[in-house]
Amino acid sequence: MQNVKILVSNDDGIYSPGLLALAEVATAYGLVRVVAPDVEQSAMGHAITISRPLHYRPTPISGLEAYRVDGTPADCVVLGTHHWEKVDLVLSGINLGSNLGNETWHSGTVAAAKQAALLGIPAIAFSTPVNGKEPNFQALKPWVGKVLETLLREPKPFLVNVNLPPKPKGLLWTRQSVRIYEGKIVPGADPMGRPHFWFTAMPDHEPEEGTDRWAVNQGLVSLTPLRLDLTDEARLQQAYQLVR
Ligand code: MN
């Protein structure tokens, strides 16, 4: 087990309690190294930094080998795997906030795992909702362990988006809930009366059974397998028919 190299990253930044919780669980499954953004990079999606150089600086946290990067979550995975040969598994999170349904597109947490998948490395993104108070990471840690044990038995490589409810009672394989977009713009004004706009995304429909959001609402840990190929297969088949 100790020969398994596990790279841990996130998008909330290297000092996030969710990152520490995930890294601590991972130490039971292999050799752990943390490479994470120096500041919060939530909702950066799969951005990479190409217009300036990046820095990779040792920043041990709680006795773990760790490095901070002045870049995005995807940058961290690229630099982390560059500095550490033959990484076996990349874990991202635990994000402070769910990454369900359409949120998956904006998520830096999921993007770190996607970047690993692009490099051919099995990867798991972990997120948990924040409803006004800090998640109880101590209570979630055994469930993170259960997920790791389940996924380490799966054929490799894999890319899985995991969302943990506050008090899990089981695991469920799910699909991503995709219906209408939940993004909203809330107008307001600053103290000087200048108009400004807040972006927000609130689910405005009941989730369909079997989806990621439905599972978390049921108190189940949602495991959604993702793929890198975005091709619309049905549309492609239709288009082939038209060409003929
Ligand atoms: Mn985040």
The whole-number mean of residue pLDDT values reads: 94
Strand content: 25-35%
Shape: globular
Amino-to-carboxy terminus distance: 54 Å
Low-confidence stretches: none
Order of helices and strands: EHEEEHEHHEHEEEEHEH
Q: How many strand elements?
A: 11
Bound molecules: manganese (II) ion
Describe this protein's structure.
- The model has no long low-confidence stretch (mean pLDDT 94).
- It is built from seven helices and eleven strands.
- Helix 1 packs across helix 5 (137-151) and helix 2 (73-83) runs parallel beside helix 4 (108-118).
- By secondary structure, it is of the alpha/beta class.
- It is globular and about 50 Å long.
- The longest helix is centred in the middle third of the chain and has 15 residues, at 137-151.
- Strands 3-4-2-1-5-6-7-11-8 form a nine-stranded mixed β-sheet, with helices on both faces.
- It has helices at 17-26, 73-83, 103-106, 108-118, 137-151, 212-217, 233-243, and strands at residues 5-9, 31-37, 56-58, 65-69, 89-96, 123-128, 159-163, 171-173, 183-189, 195-201, 221-225.
- A hairpin with a 5-residue loop joins strand 9 (183-189) and strand 10 (195-201).
Present the secondary structure layout.
Elements (H helix, E strand, L loop, with lengths): L4 E5 L7 H10 L4 E7 L18 E3 L6 E5 L3 H11 L5 E8 L6 H4 L1 H11 L4 E6 L8 H15 L7 E5 L7 E3 L9 E7 L5 E7 L10 H6 L3 E5 L7 H11 L1
The structure holds manganese (II) ion (MN).
